[in-house]
Q: What sequence folds into this?
């Protein structure tokens, strides 16, 4: 299992696959660069990262505040109202809170756009891809946390530990203010331990169901008592007075007193490495890996004391990672689709409100997973409405009309992800031809670069060039004929509007939804 791929088998298809899975895709030039560098150097660069870490400048508002000061300011707002008028004082306090929430809403939008743009332009794509992975693994939502600063801080923790040691990251999450808020650790004290974090750290973050007992949940909850958020610094504070410091029997250990020791006991369980290996492989390669494959990757994690780099390197250099069951079989998440499209077309992302609105319609908003389990992924990304949103968004980015102005709406995802839009006969549903329009504002996409003038009078060559960029290979034979027919119907003068319409048509196929 996880047999190394021979260097002579390295080619453009495999380089594109690595860029898609260890990042958010790339241009033909990026792919060619990896082909020339070879697999060993390409994987080493991605896994090790740049020699100098890439800074992630924080949004201007992302700095700790004093929660006690905020409460005091709310009280002062009420006191500024006429004395002896309780209703006016109440209303003044409510107005202060309302304004505070409006600012926080704007900060949440700003934070989402900030991270998405970092994904788009980062020269360290695996760092951002792993940050996204950990966000889904330790799923935490601003809906309950409320604080954009806490969410930014957690995002930074993921980034700083992205390819580091898993045990260090789990301990950092137990002290993370957003996680403390999200799973109610701040309410846990020796007299009344709260079991939420204790349960989820085992069930969802480290071991999986069936690898711990209810007694372990109870004893683990005691170990994590006293974990607090310091209201003066918005950082972690350990309150020994509310901590249960008695010895606890937890996962067969009898000497566990605190959260760090509980996490050490978790990491010592054979199930922990298997749990993490399975999740990593599913995210980066394909679903339902075999037990021997999982065990091999788990052995790598154990042998390196949960250092992520050796496991990532072994995964990204294995034959299995580049096998037919892996390449172009994964349905792009909405974030993968959006960021990958911007990188592929070499454009900026839309403004933050329409950007995050589109991601909401497609089913994945950063900093807002649906539950503590994160996003289901896979076929759950695809439905009639989410597919139509993808197609319409492609048209918006290219400034063409809806590719479904009068034709059938695509069906929900079938069992076979390779045929996401199907007819009753089992054939891919033909996408109605988009009608190009003259843009009212300058088009962002450099169509002269994507479709050079010298090949526009050759439909087959133009389709091939765009397919290499959009699909990293040839389109399906039936789709290829449809694309060529579209160009032939347009006449001999293939202008930018026709090219944009063709790209839109290609982005509205099942093939483009896969990576």
A:
């Amino acid at each position: 299992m996880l047999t190394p791929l021979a260097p002579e088998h390295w080619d453009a298809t495999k380089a594109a696959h690595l860029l898609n899975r260890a990042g958010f895709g790339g241009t033909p030039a990026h792919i060619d660069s990896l082909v020339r560098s070879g697999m060993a150097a390409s994987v080493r660069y991605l896994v090790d990262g740049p020699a100098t870490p890439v800074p992630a400048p924080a949004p201007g508002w992302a700095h700790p505040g004093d929660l006690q000061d905020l409460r005091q300011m709310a009280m002062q707002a009420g006191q500024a109202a006429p004395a002896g008028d309780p209703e006016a004082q109440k209303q003044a306090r409510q107005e202060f809170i309302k304004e505070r929430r409006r600012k926080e809403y704007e900060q949440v939008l700003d934070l989402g756009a900030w991270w998405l743009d970092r994904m788009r332009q980062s020269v360290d794509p695996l760092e951002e891809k792993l940050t996204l992975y950990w966000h889904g693994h330790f799923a935490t939502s601003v809906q309950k946390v409320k604080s954009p600063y806490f969410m930014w801080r957690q995002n930074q923790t993921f980034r700083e530990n992205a390819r580091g040691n898993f045990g260090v990251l789990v301990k950092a999450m137990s002290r993370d203010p957003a996680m403390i808020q999200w799973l109610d650790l701040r309410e846990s004290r020796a007299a009344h331990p709260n079991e939420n974090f204790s349960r989820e750290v085992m069930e969802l973050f480290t071991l999986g169901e069936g690898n711990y007992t209810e007694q372990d949940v109870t004893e683990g909850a005691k170990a994590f008592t006293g974990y607090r958020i310091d209201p003066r610094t918005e950082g972690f504070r350990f309150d020994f007075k509310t901590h249960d410091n008695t010895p606890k029997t937890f996962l067969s250990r009898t000497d566990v007193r605190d959260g760090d020791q509980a996490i050490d006991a978790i990491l010592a369980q054979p199930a922990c490495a298997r749990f993490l290996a399975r999740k990593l492989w599913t995210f980066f390669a394909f679903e339902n890996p075999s037990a021997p494959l999982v065990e091999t990757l788990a052995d790598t994690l154990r042998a390196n004391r949960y250092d992520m780099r050796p496991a990532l390197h072994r995964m990204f250099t294995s034959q299995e990672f580049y096998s037919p069951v892996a390449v172009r079989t994964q349905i792009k998440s909405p974030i993968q689709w959006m960021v990958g499209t911007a990188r592929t077309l070499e454009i900026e992302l839309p403004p933050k409100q329409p950007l995050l609105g589109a991601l909401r319609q497609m089913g994945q908003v950063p900093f807002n997973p649906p539950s503590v389990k994160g996003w289901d992924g896979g076929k759950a990304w695809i439905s009639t409405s989410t597919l139509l949103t993808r197609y319409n968004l492609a048209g918006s980015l290219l400034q063409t009309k809806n590719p479904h102005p009068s034709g059938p709406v695509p069906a929900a995802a079938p069992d076979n992800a390779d045929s996401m839009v199907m007819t009753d006969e089992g054939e891919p549903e033909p996408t109605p031809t988009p009608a190009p329009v003259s843009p009212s504002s300058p088009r962002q996409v450099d169509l002269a670069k994507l479709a050079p003038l010298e090949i526009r009078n050759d439909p087959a060559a133009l389709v091939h060039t765009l397919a290499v960029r959009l699909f990293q290979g040839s389109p399906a034979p039936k789709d290829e004929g449809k694309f060529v027919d579209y160009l032939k119907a347009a006449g001999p003068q293939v202008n930018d509007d026709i090219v944009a319409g063709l790209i839109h048509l290609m982005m509205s196929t099942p093939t483009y939804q896969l990576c």
